[in-house]
């Protein structure tokens, strides 16, 4: 039985992105939808695709062949396309952010783009975040001098944690090498260090997924590097959180097992394939609406033998390709 609590608040703010309408409907079932979820995709390419630096001047672009194998990571999500219920034209998508207050006082804020939420006249523009107080552009030099961290690692810690970087440096392990003195990297090509996992746990990280995707950005930057770092991350978390071997297992579960579970979430009646109706049912259960054309387009990409349904092997191939960055994980978070 789910538990219910009464919470007193001066104000309730609904900033739930694509879930904007489901929360608005908790306040008033009759309220018309203002949010049209739309799929968005990001891919990460090696730095040499960027048209700046030795090969070109900033802003110049040249044509070259992009190979699928060069995609280091790919991910998708749902962006909130919002209309303003207070504007005369309630049909057109807002180019800016939307703030609306319901009769009961529920404040809803939503925007299609993150930068639209950082409006120029915003009161929070000068607000200092945790770690900002003693931060300076040269703070990383003190980390190098006082702790013996590599310069690249120190710069990463200073820009990520601000003055809290010293707390991470304090718990960094001795490398046993002449240089750097402390700060063991999780993977050689990224400046993330093991101490960040320990620090993340102190900051309430409880799953390996949280560490590889949010406490560090490894999962979004390079999927193979993230997979490589995973066992060490799980070991560190297990030590900090006193996990037994059994508890470590799900985090280390081979990817195909996870994908199969995901497949069966869609194929609930165990037909052995997924149809557009299955996808619609799952999207409905998480209050996400998507127009049928977009759904057909997505399924068509995954349906390799073009028989109008997605079999397990097609699903596995697609998920694996998306993980390895050789295919885009377009559309809803399947
Ligand atoms: C693939 C992709 C690429 C994008 N690229 C860009 C870009 O390059 N530039 C740009 O400016 N924008 C980009 N966007 C859009 C940007 O991510 C969104 O506009 C922005 O994240 C919206 O911020 P938000 O805080 O309103 O919602 P979100 O970031 O979606 O945050 C909503 C939060 O509410 C939580 N939540 C939902 N329901 C509940 C509930 N019932 N109770 C409690 N919590 C709840 C969610 O877990 C989530 O943490 C991109 C979006 C996607 C999907």
UniProtKB/TrEMBL annotation:
EC identifiers of the protein: 1.1.5.3
Domain EF-hand intervals: 258-289, 290-325
InterPro entries with a match to the protein in the record: DAO_C (IPR031656), DAO_C_sf (IPR038299), EF-hand-dom_pair (IPR011992), EF_Hand_1_Ca_BS (IPR018247), EF_hand_dom (IPR002048), FAD/NAD-bd_sf (IPR036188), G3P_DH_FAD-dep (IPR000447)
Pathway membership, UniProt: Polyol metabolism; glycerol degradation
SUPFAM superfamilies: EF-hand (SSF47473)
Entry-linked CDD domains: EFh (cd00051)
Keyword terms, alphabetized: Calcium, FAD, Flavoprotein, Metal-binding, Mitochondrion, Oxidoreductase, Repeat, Transit peptide
Reactions catalysed according to its record: a quinone + sn-glycerol 3-phosphate = dihydroxyacetone phosphate + a quinol
Matches recorded under SMART domains: EFh (SM00054)
GO annotation, cellular component aspect: mitochondrion
Highest taxon of source: Eukaryota
GO biological process: glycerol-3-phosphate metabolic process
Annotated PANTHER family: GLYCEROL-3-PHOSPHATE DEHYDROGENASE (PTHR11985), GLYCEROL-3-PHOSPHATE DEHYDROGENASE, MITOCHONDRIAL (PTHR11985:SF15)
Family: Belongs to the FAD-dependent glycerol-3-phosphate dehydrogenase family.
Summary of the function given for this chain in its UniProt record: Calcium-responsive mitochondrial glycerol-3-phosphate dehydrogenase which seems to be a key component of the pancreatic beta-cell glucose-sensing device.
Descriptive protein name: Glycerol-3-phosphate dehydrogenase, mitochondrial
The organism of origin for this protein: Lamprotornis superbus
